[in-house]
Design brief:
Strand order of the largest sheet: 2-1-15
CATH superfamily: L-arginine/glycine Amidinotransferase, Chain A
CATH class: Alpha Beta
Distance between the termini: 9 Å
Structural class: alpha/beta
Number of strands: 15
Largest sheet: 3 strands, mixed
CATH topology: L-arginine/glycine Amidinotransferase, Chain A
Radius of gyration: 17 Å
Number of domains: 1
Strand content: 15-25%
Number of helices: 11
CATH architecture: 5-stranded Propeller
Helix content: 25-40%
Length: 299
C-alpha cells in the first residue's frame, strides 16, 4: 500500500461503478466527438456495458488490484466514468468538481460522499463554480504527475483555466495548460490525450497546438507519442495501477493497445511486465470514454 502522506504516482485501490442505465448521453455529445448515437434498443447497450465492466473489474482483481465496486443510478448514463466528479490524494484529501452536463452533476451522490468522508477528511469543493458556468472535471481535466506535482490541463468547455489555476494553487502543483484540436474541436478531456506513469508517459502529440506540454513531459518521463487515429482508439485513456507484490501495471483498453505500433509496444514492455487490456467496445463506442475514465483512484 502506498504511504498516504507521501505523493506516489499510482495506487493499488480502485473504485469502479456498475451502471444501472448506460447509454450514449445526449447532454455530452456536443463536446465529445467520440460518442455515437444510441440504437433503438438501449437495453442491449446497458447489458453489454455491465458485462464489460464486470469482466474489467475481474481482470483487475485477478492481477492483485484492490477494487471497490459501487452501483450506479438510473438517469446517470455516464456514471460508469466515475473519475470525473472526484479525485483523492495523499493526506486524506478529497476534491469534488463542477461538471458541465446537468445529468452528470447528479453523479455526486451524497451517500457515496458520506462513505468516502470516513477515509478523506480534508475536503475541497469546487462545485459551486457550476453556477458561473465554469467547470473542471476532475482527473478527466487534470492529468497529474503526482510525484513532481505537475498538473497537465487541456483547455476545453469542460475544463477552465482559472479553476485549474486555483486547484494548483490550493494543492501545491505547477500547472501546464495547453490547447488541442481533433475533428474540428478541442479534445474534451485531458485524460483522452495523455497518461502519466511512474517512469513513462503517453501523449497524443498530433492533436497539440504547440509542443510545450510535450517538452515538459519529457523532462521527467520517457514519452511515447501517439497519432490522432491512435487517440481515437483510446490509447491515451490509460492508467498505471499497482498489482500483486507492488507491481506497476498499465491499464489500456484492447482497442487502444491494438492500435499501437510494435516500437511503441516495445517501450511499454520495457516499463511494464503486465499490461491489462480490457475489452470494452460498447462502453467506448457509446460512452466516448475508455478504461481510465472508469477507474477512480483511492489513495
Amino acid at each position: 500500500m502506498p504511504n498516504k502522506n507521501q505523493p506516489v504516482q499510482s495506487t493499488n485501490h480502485i473504485m469502479v461503478m456498475e451502471p444501472k442505465g448506460f447509454y450514449s448521453n445526449p447532454e455530452t455529445m456536443a463536446t465529445n466527438s467520440y460518442q455515437h448515437t444510441n440504437p433503438d434498443d438501449v437495453s442491449d447497450v446497458q447489458s453489454k456495458a455491465v458485462a464489460e465492466l464486470r469482466a474489467f473489474r475481474d481482470l483487475l482483481v485477478e492481477n492483485g488490484v484492490v477494487v471497490t465496486t459501487t452501483l450506479g443510478q438510473v438517469g446517470c448514463p455516464d456514471d460508469i466514468f466515475c473519475n470525473n466528479w472526484i479525485s483523492t490524494h495523499e493526506n486524506n484529501r478529497m476534491v469534488l468538481y463542477p461538471m458541465l452536463a446537468d445529468n452528470r452533476r447528479t453523479e455526486r451522490r451524497p451517500d457515496l460522499i458520506k462513505i468516502l468522508r470516513h477515509m478523506y477528511t480534508d475536503i475541497q469543493d469546487f462545485t459551486a463554480h457550476e453556477q458561473n458556468n465554469k467547470f473542471l472535471e476532475a482527473t478527466g481535466a487534470l492529468c497529474m504527475d503526482r510525484i513532481n506535482r505537475i498538473a497537465y490541463h487541456a483547455r476545453s468547455q469542460r475544463s477552465h483555466d482559472d479553476l485549474a489555476q486555483m486547484w494548483c494553487k490550493m494543492n501545491d502543483y505547477k500547472l501546464i495548460s495547453f490547447d488541442t484540436e481533433h475533428q474540428g474541436k478541442p479534445v474534451y478531456h485531458t485524460d483522452v490525450v495523455m497518461w502519466i506513469g511512474t517512469n513513462v508517459a503517453g501523449i497524443s502529440s498530433e492533436c497539440l497546438k504547440n509542443d510545450d506540454a510535450l517538452k515538459h513531459l519529457k523532462h521527467n518521463r520517457e514519452v511515447i507519442e501517439f497519432t490522432n487515429e491512435q487517440m481515437r482508439n483510446f490509447c491515451g485513456n490509460s492508467l498505471e495501477v499497482i498489482g500483486e507484490g507492488g507491481e506497476r501495471m498499465l491499464v489500456m483498453s484492447a482497442a487502444g493497445y491494438n492500435s499501437l505500433r510494435d516500437d511503441q509496444k516495445e517501450v511499454l514492455a520495457h516499463h511494464y511486465k503486465t499490461i491489462l487490456n480490457p475489452e470494452i467496445p460498447t462502453i467506448e463506442y457509446y460512452g466516448g470514454g475508455s478504461a481510465r475514465c472508469m477507474l477512480l483512484e483511492l489513495f
